[in-house]
Amino acid sequence: QVQLVESGGGLVQPGGSLRLSCAVSGSIFSFDDMGWFRQAPGKERELIARITRGGITNHADSVNDRFTISRDVAQNTVYLQMNSLKSDDTAVYYCNARSLTDNIWGQGTQVTVSS
User: 26-52 in b/e burial notation, b at 16+ Cβ within 10 A?
Assistant: First the structure.
């Protein structure tokens, strides 16, 4: 079973930046797409960004001009660069990988934006 391991979360001040990483134990090309989700306390899990096997990306409107999803194929790693962080971005961030037969989640990494 392929595993996803997120890292890079932590405490950051408003306006700061973080880069999250999602390391895939297999090939990222095994999946049709990979994405980042987040879940804040008391709220539903929401999609933040996706990248397809072909490299096409899309981002939620709420983060479109601040967050960027990317990947390193050689490292089998997907990234989420987060800039201009706000308190509303505080959440657990999850990596996700989808194919016709699999829908895999990482364990999540906490991001807290606070002064």
Answer: eebebbebbbbbbeeeeeeeeebbbbe
